[in-house]
Amino acid sequence: MKNWQPGHLREAWVLCFILGVVMLNYPFLQIFNKPTLIFGIPLLVLYFLVGWPISILVIYLFSRFLATPHAPTSPTEDEEE
Predict the structure, then answer these.
(1) Which residues contact 48 (CB under 8 A, 6 or more apart)?
(2) Residue 24 to residue 21: CA distance in whole angstroms
(3) Strand (E) positions, 1-81?
(4) Would you kindly state where each structural domain of the chain is located, as residue ranges?
(5) pTM score, whole prediction
(6) What is the tens place of the pLDDT at every residue in 39-71?
(7) CA 28 – CA 32 distance, rounded (Å)
(8) Phi and psi of 76, rounded to 5°?
């Protein structure tokens, strides 16, 4: 398993933030802003009702992954020298 360094973790959180901002910005909102109803719900509202919990779930799973202890990796012969 890969050993996560603080710099990599910060990059992953920044990536999650940027993805969330992009999903709530003009191009994506305009894609789903159609006069279409799915199960009687406007498509844009359905996008928010589905997209928001999914983004929360992704952040939750990411934070749970970071909270789990990982087995230490044994150094290889090259790293011992």
Answers:
(1) none
(2) 5
(3) 37-38, 41-42
(4) 10-68
(5) 0.65
(6) 999 999 999 999 989 989 988 888 887 777 765
(7) 7
(8) -85, 175
